[in-house]
């Protein structure tokens, strides 16, 4: 089943082949949507600061009862964060909103 298949990255880490995106899901609805995704087998959850739903996504990650190490969490930082300080502060804000100790992948959102 594709939900359990992964790609191996050059550094040896793995990433699920299919992820559940949370774009256009309101923060208040995000926990329920992520709960359903996890229930059906998704292990890669994708969000972004611009989606304004990191809190709801993070709450369900915590509430799911799934070991955090079994989930692959991606978020995206705003492209306007150009300096090291802005970027690290942005990542810290996402971690705080999601109540997580680490993220598996951080991407620059629309870096054009």
Draw up the topology in text.
Blueprint: E1 6-8, E2 14-16, E3 20-21, H1 27-40, E4 44-46, H2 54-63, E5 72-78, H3 84-98, E6 105-109
Parallel strand pairs: 3-4, 4-5, 5-6
Antiparallel strand pairs: 1-2
Describe the protein.
The protein is α/β, with parallel strands linked by helices. It is built from three helices and six strands. Helix 1 packs across helix 2. The longest helix is centred in the last third of the chain and has 15 residues. The chain is globular. It starts with 5 loop residues before the first strand and ends with a strand. The model has no long low-confidence stretch (mean pLDDT 95).
Q: Please count the helical segments.
A: 3
**Major sheet characteristics:** 4 strands, parallel
Strand content: 15-25%
Number of strands: 6
- The poorly predicted ranges are none
What string gives the helices and strands in order? EEEHEHEHE
Average pLDDT: 95
Amino- and carboxy-terminal Cα gap: 35 Å
Fraction of residues in H or I helices = 25-40%
Radius of gyration: 14 Å
């Amino acid at each position: 089943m594709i939900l359990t298949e992964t790609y191996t990255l050059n550094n040896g880490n793995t990433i699920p082949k299919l992820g559940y995106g949370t774009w256009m899901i309101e923060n208040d609805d995000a926990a329920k949507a992520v709960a359903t995704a996890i229930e059906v087998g998704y292990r890669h959850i994708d969000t972004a600061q611009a989606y304004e739903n990191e809190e709801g996504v993070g709450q369900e990650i915590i509430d799911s009862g799934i070991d955090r190490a079994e989930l692959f969490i991606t978020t995206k930082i705003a492209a306007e964060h150009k300096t090291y300080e802005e970027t690290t502060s942005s990542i810290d804000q996402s971690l705080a909103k999601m109540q997580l100790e680490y993220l598996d992948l951080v991407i620059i959102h629309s870096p054009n």
